[in-house]
Structures are given as structure tokens and as C-alpha cells.
Amino acid sequence: MSTETPPQRPEAGNAPLRLLIVEDSEEDLALLLLELSRSGIGYSHVHASNRAQFEAAFSAGSCDAVISDYRFPGWTGMDAFVYVRSVAPEVPFILVTGHLGDEAAVDCIKRGVDDYVLKGHLSRLATALLRAIAERHRRREHLATRESLRMSEARNRDLVEYSIYGICRTNGDGTFIDTNPALLRILNLQPGQPQIAGVQDVFRYPEQFAQFMASCNEFGQIHGAEAEWRRPDGGLLTVRLHIRLLAPPDPQGSVEIIVEDVTELRMMERQLRQAQKFEAIGQLAGGIAHEFNNVIGAIAGWAELGLDQNASSKQSAERFTRIREQADRAATLTRELLVFARRQILQPSAVDLNIIAGGLTDFLDKVLGGNIKLKFITAPLEPIKADPTQIEHVLMNLCLHARDSMPSGGMLRIETEIADLDDSFCRFYPYVSPGSYAVLSVADTGIGMDAETREHIFEPFFTDATYGISRGMALATVYGIVKQHGGFIHVYSEPGQGSLFRVYFPLMEKSAMDAQASKPSGLHSRQVRGTETILLAEDHDSIREMARSTLLSLGYKVLSAADGEEAIRLSRQATPDLAILDMIMPNLGGPATAGKLLQLFENLPILFTSGYAQVHHGVAGVSGGEHYLQKPYSPSALARLVREVLDRKSVTTNA
Predict the structure, then answer these.
(1) Which listed residue, 181, 347, 370, 440, has the most CB atoms within 10 A of its CB?
(2) Terminal CA-to-CA distance of the chain, rounded, Å?
(3) With respect to CATH, is domain 349-511 assigned 3.30.565.10?
(4) pLDDT at 9 > cutoff 80
(5) DSSP labels for 89-103?
(6) Is there a contact between 553 and 531 (Cβ–Cβ < 8 Å)?
């Protein structure tokens, strides 16, 4: 008799086992049930004595196990086993037989029968039953574990396969073990293409790879290390790397590398820093130019007055003339600073770049010299809204820069075209808006520029230390004009390979073109003298006195004020025919003063003065009759504009 300890029932709780017993002998059935009861197993059973009853009972409901005799009339227990496995393969199946040869027993076990018990040793039945049920649970758990592992592997595979980050594993020498599709995309490789041998081959600077591996071997991992990679097609990219040293069973020295392509991010950061730098320089340049404008305006004004008053004295007239010439030179410099700072006043109109460039070709032929060949290629263009004088300034400065870059001669090519920029282009250049642009290209075959020079090329007075070329304000002025017109510049250059400047101007909208075409021509002054009363408000003493003297000499009555509040008080003493207001004054600025004056005198024309373009744009809507005079201005310019404004008022009143 077996002394084998029965295993514990694996099910939780005390639910009885549901057994299907297939036995055609009532006596054997009773013995079998008696042995199960003695074992203490809780169970319920269904009895089937033939094939039809068995199949009907098995199909009718679930059972925890099947106990079957081996031999029946016309069929066998193995037939019942085949049926069970075809319908519910996880249900344990135990054969009970009076005698079974060794070969038959081995065949039954090989075919998948969980166990067999001889009728002479029914004491083993409970043990075999519980073992089979326990084995079933182990199989279920194993299958569940395998399925869970399969799902986990699939999820992890998806994480790697569909990750936006490149992931790879390499040996200690850098040879690739595994790579994911994202890494192939970063390297611009297609599946099936010849692969690179190892990660060390993509480092632009191989010593970086050696440094990273040494750090990883020392510390186990490194995070956020940046490097430059060179793709097999030659393209450069900036990557951020996270490297982890792998432990056994992976090969010794092997590492896992996660690669993040930050090329676009770093490019945008450089563009932002460049824009912030130019903005800061522009603010400084604009502030300096504004102050200089006041000083230079006073000098030029007094020089012109002195020249008029001393025209009979040749020596004095010559000195005043030279003073005015130097003041004009200084004024030109301040205008260039204002252009760079984008604070220059524009006089926009519909401009065709082909006409501008074509009109300068004869002049360029003269200034470029005989050793530089000029080539002009045009394409049909739509107009841009621009100040034609400023656009000429852009082209001239770019051509003069090209000339200076070709001391031994070469080819200068000017080309125009239309470019349509879409969202994919603008994604790399956040300061660019999608749309159509007129493009002006200036290319030379000169000495070219390195990356460091290109970074600073548009800074005022930048000097190229490599070639000893001082850029002065020329390219800084180009930068300011283009930005003020809503455009942008791309520079392509390499040392010894020449340079290409591509200037993009947004095309003029049709509504603006129609308005430009219907704009009436302005009135022209024939007489600058007058007897009207003019209210003058200017906080700079020299400019105020120069303007006052100029107006008095022309016969006007002048109410002179140092700020807006004083101008309001003076206006109550005498009704002004025109108010000349500086934009920026203490106590009360120009726009606020204009607002109060218009409450007192509804149709009073206003003439604003300032060196800033932004404040000019900000006064729109103060009244219907405001005008603008940019500093520094000459006495003659002031006289002409004052007379023109007063004449317009007279025409409007009479109408």
C-alpha cells in the first residue's frame, strides 16, 4: 500500500471538486467513490457508463477532472481522452484500469494522459487526482506567465521600435549589436542599406567617443552629453546622448545608448540668441542715435542759419559750410544706426526689385572695377512694399561687400526670384512667416567667411580679424533695413568658396497695391514764408532755439515751449495755426499734448518730430491731420514742411 502523502488541493476556498467518472461497472464505481471519500477530498460527481452519456455529460457543464476506465464495449478510455483534449485540453484526465502493460502505460503518458491508477491500488487515486489538478494549475500559471512575458516583450519592443529617440546597444569597441528604426532615421539610413560598422564612425570628433566611453566605464553611466555626429551622407547633426554600461550576461564593456536629435533645437536657440543680441545692440544704437540727432540737428541748423547770415563773408561762409558738411556726415552715421535699430522712418511704395537692381547696374560697373565681372539674372517678380531708396542701399552695400571680398577680382552675380516658403521651412526658422517672398541674391567668388565670422557679420563695426576687413556699418545697415521691411537674410559662405547673401522681402498684398495706385500726389510748396502763429514744443534747448529762430526769420509768430504742459498754457494765450511737437518730452509727451490741443482746437494740424520710427507709427489716429518730420532736420526742411502743412490746411478749409 502506498505511503505517499497526498498533495494539498490547489484551489482556494472549500468548493468541492467536480468530477466526471466514466465507468460501466457499478461495483468498480462504488469502490472508486469509497476510496475518494476515505481520502477526505470534497467532491461531487457525474457518472457516465457509455460514450453517449460521457459526451453529453462533458458537453453539459464544466468539470475539474475526468476519471475513466480503460476498456468499454466498442470504445476505450483513450477515445474519451482524445475527445477531452479536443474540447477542453486543460482538464486533467486519469485512467483507472484493472491491468495495463508497461508499453501501453508509456504510450498513454506520451499521448498526454495525466496519470493512470490500477484498480488494485486505488489508494493512489486521490494522490494522482490532486497532483494532476495541481499540475493543471501550474500549467495555467505557466501559460499566463508566458503570455504576460510575451505581452511585456511586445510592449517593450513597441517602446523601442516606435520611440522618437534613437536606441542602440554596442560592444565595447563601438560595434553595433542592436539599433532601433529611430536611430536609422536620425542617421538618414534606410532598412536594407549598408550599415555603418559602429557608433564611433558617426562622431565628427572621434576623441569625444573615447572620452564618453572612459567616463561611462568609470561612473557606469553618463546623461545629457552632447556631441556632433556626421551622417553617412555627410550631413551634420547635434545629438544629446545618454549612455549606460551594461552588466552581465551582456558582453563585457557593452553599452546602451539613447540618442536625442537636438539639431533643430540648438539651431533655434542660436537664432534666438542672435536675435536677442541684435535687439540689445539695436536698442543701444537707437538710443545713442536719438541723442546724437538732437545735438547734430542743432549744429546743422545753426550752421545753416549762420551760412545764410554770412553769405557776404567768404571766409565765414566757408567755415559754416564745412561745419554743416561734418554735421551732415554725422547725421548720415546716426541714420545708419537708426536703420540698424529699425527706427528709421520709411517711405514705402510698390517696388519692383528688378527695376531697382537694373537701375544700379551702370553705377555698379563703375564702382566694382574692371577685374570684377557683373552678371545680372532676373525672373518675373511681383512688387514688394518698400522704401526704394533703402532697397537701393541694401543692394549697394551687399555689392560693395562683395567687391571688398574679391581683391583679386572675380564674379559678382545678382539674381532675383520668387520663393514660396511653407510651414515645413518656417519650422526651422521661427522668425519667418509662411508665404511668398521676392528674393534678391548677391553672390561673389571671393575669400568667403568661416562660421565665427558669419555669426558676427551683421554687427556694427565688426572687423574680420582673419582677413583684416572692417565691415563698418554697411552690413549692419542691410540687416536693419531688411528687418524693418519684414524680411530676413540667409548667408551661405565657406573660406575660399565665396559668399551668397539671399535677402527675402514679403510680397505686397493686393489691397496695399490698390491703395498705393490710388494714392493722390502731395501738394508742393512754392513759398516758405508766412505770418501764421505756430506753437513749438521741444525739450532740447538748442533744437528749440534753432527752430524758433528759423520760423521767426520766415515771418511766423512762434509760441515756444519746453514741454507739453507749457505748450497747453501758451495755446490759451493765442490760437495756433499749427503745432510742432517733439514726440518724447518730460511732463507731457507729444501724442498726449496733441490730444489735449485737439480738444481745444478741433482742426489744428499737428507736426510731430522725432528720431524714432516706432513712435511715429504709434501716433496714428491721434488726429486726421498729423504729419511727421524726422530728426535731425535742417531749417530749410522745417520751413518747407511747415508751409506745406499750412497750405494743405488752407486748401481743406476753403473746400
Answers:
(1) 440
(2) 134
(3) yes
(4) no
(5) TTS-EEEEES---HH
(6) no
Any idea where the domains of the chain sit in the sequence?
Answer: 17-140, 163-261, 270-340, 349-511, 533-654
Chain-wide mean pLDDT for the chain?
Answer: 79
Domain covering 533-654 assigned CATH 3.40.1130.10 in the classification:
no
- In angstroms and rounded to an integer, the radius of gyration of the C-alpha atoms of the chain is 47
Give the torsion through C-alpha atoms of 148, 149, 152, 157, to 10 deg: -140
Tens digit of each residue's pLDDT (9 = 90 or more) over 139-166: 888 888 888 888 887 787 777 777 888 8
Provide the H-helix boundaries in 310-387.
Answer: 314-340, 353-368
> What are the tens digits of pLDDT across the range 518-535?
444 443 334 678 899 999
Q: Do β-strands 463-464 and 469-470 pair in parallel, antiparallel, or remain unpaired?
A: antiparallel
Q: How far are the Cα atoms of 106, 168, 417 from residue 509, in angstroms, in the given order?
A: 93, 51, 17
Strands (E), 392-540: 410-421, 435-444, 463-464, 469-470, 488-493, 499-506, 533-537
Which contiguous run of DSSP H or E holds residue 374?
Answer: strand 372-377
Percent of the chain residues topping a pLDDT of 70: 81
Mark 424-448 as b/e (b = at least 16 C-beta within 10 Å).
Answer: eeeeeeeebeeeebbbbbbbbbbbb
The correct answer on CATH 2.30.42.10 for the domain covering 163-261 is no
Q: Cα–Cα distance between 588 and 387 in angstroms, integer?
A: 32
Q: Domain 17-140: give its CATH superfamily.
A: Response regulator (3.40.50.2300)
Residue 512's H or E segment, with its range, is: helix 510-518
Q: Quick one: cell of 542?
A: 538748442
Confidence band (pLDDT; 50, 70, 90) for 428? Answer: low
User: What amino acid occupies position 66?
Assistant: V
CA angle 414, 419, 423 (to 5 degrees): 145
Q: 163-261 with 533-654: one CATH topology?
A: no
Phi, psi dihedrals of residue 399, rounded to the nearest 5°? -70, -40
Calpha distance 224→274 (Å, rounded)? 24
pLDDT band at 503 (very low <50, low <70, confident <90, very high): very high
Contact 585, 570 (CB under 8 A): no
In the numeric block, the cell 542592436 is attached to 178
Task: Compute the 3-state secondary structure of the chain and give helix, strand, coil in percent, each to the nearest 5.
Answer: 45, 20, 30
Residue 118 has pLDDT above 70, yes or no: yes
Contact 69, 99 (CB under 8 A): no
